[in-house]
Amino acid sequence: MGALADRVRAFFNEGNDRSVRARRNAAAMLLLKGGNVLVGLLLVPLTLTYVDSDTYGIWIALSSMVAWMSLFDIGLNNGLRNKLAEALAAGDKPLGRRYVSTTYALMSMIFIPLMAALVLASGYIDWSGLLRLPQAQAGGIAAAACVIIVYFCLNFILSTVNMVILAEQRPAWSSLISLIQQLTSLTVIFIMTRITQGNLIRLCLGLCASPLIIIAFSSLVLYLGRYRDIAPSFRHVDFSLTGSLLSLGAQFFIIQIASVIQFQMLNFLIIRYHGASDVTSYNIAYRYFSVALMLWGILVTPLWTATTDAFARNDVSWVRESLRGYQKLLVLAFAGLGLLLLFSPVAYRFLSNGTVTVPFATTVWVMVYMAVLMAANLYVNIVNGSGHLRVQTISSMISPFVFIGLCALSVHLGTGVHGIVIAAIISNFNGYLLAPLQCRNMLRRD
């Protein structure tokens, strides 16, 4: 037992400082993300107790559509993550503070006017016609859309603190904030099931208000404490840094466009061509298998900023060694997906309170989709951390057209929900084909 304890201590305390930090973060995130996954899974049956599956499907579809607004950050937050990591690696906190302050200023200038414009415009949109919903299901959609719009716009600004946390290579802190947000939402929805009658607007308010309060409070605590030296302030806003932020940000922006189209449009296409209940069944399968994706994310999240730090210090051998280790773990992760497939019928009964049926074809293809995303996360994190984004940027200009074309073919052939999932898998060719080739060539060359 003593020898085992010594080996555990050595694992978390010996070796390259960057590796030690990554191991400690991964261990902390395993606990925090595990809690996050558990709370997220508990939230599904509780929500389906509060509202019916159609209402839940409408919430998912509206959230996915409004999430398109993430495009308007034009890659600023990801640009901040890399630039701040470089500034901190060089020990230049004043420059880091200017980057942080400028990012907050630019995000506010984008999302506050956008929020006002979209809230005003939402009253003129035929939401039920857009989503092809019967009038009986259309009640309160415009008001619910306004709530979601306000939430997403404010959240885009406030969540900039997560980029600061990631740039300092402390992703576990970001996971802690997320866990507290999830726990608060779970508590709020539980209370609402006891004191109110469920409807779409109340569901949106319950799921949107508490995360905003938590992220605002977390930002205040961090910027008054640990991040005092790089805390945002009006006098440190320096718009001359905009070009520097956008030099990477513009490429991340193009990548985000492809990501939003392929991930967020999926729910919209399902509700439009298959119905709200199919959105719910797809999302139950997605949420279940995303347990593996989240756990894998625990391991790979530290890799992005650690790679940026390694390249800034010309320590490419560290990246090469880390990639070999992660590739071995990926094989085990795929085996984990197989186990999830085996137990999926039992899990679905729990997640839906036995009220939703998930077709086996949807289950299988969602599992394959998760496998593709997990592989992509590994290689894309290294590419993003290196800042070598040209290949990914070009592929992101092509993949949305591949996705939309394949979705149109799927609808025409009547292949069902899983046909749209297959379209998402094929169109993510950068993650499972180009990014691995790029990593191999990039690390071999350097």
In whole angstroms, the N-to-C terminal distance is 42 Å
Mean pLDDT: 80
Radius of gyration: 22 Å
Number of domains: 1
User: Which runs of at least 5 residues are low in confidence (pLDDT < 50)?
Assistant: none
Q: Give the assembly state of these chains.
A: single chain
Strand content: under 5%
Helical content stands at over 70%
**Major sheet size, sense and barrel closure:** none
Taken from the alpha-carbon principal axes, the silhouette is: globular
Order of H and E elements: HHHHHHHHHHHHHHHHHH
Number of helical stretches of at least 4 residues? 18
Q: What would you call the structural class?
A: mainly alpha
Strand count: 0
What is the fold's blueprint, element by element?
Layout: H1 2-13, H2 17-50, H3 53-66, H4 76-89, H5 93-122, H6 127-130, H7 141-158, H8 160-167, H9 171-195, H10 200-224, H11 242-273, H12 276-312, H13 316-342, H14 344-351, H15 360-386, H16 390-413, H17 417-427, H18 429-445
Write up this protein.
With 446 residues, the protein is mainly alpha-helical. Helix content is 82%, strand content 0%. It is globular, with a radius of gyration of 22 Å. It has one domain.
How would you summarize what this structure contains?
The protein is 82% helix and 0% strand. It has 446 residues and is mainly α.
Which characteristics define this entry?
82% helix; mainly alpha; 446 residues
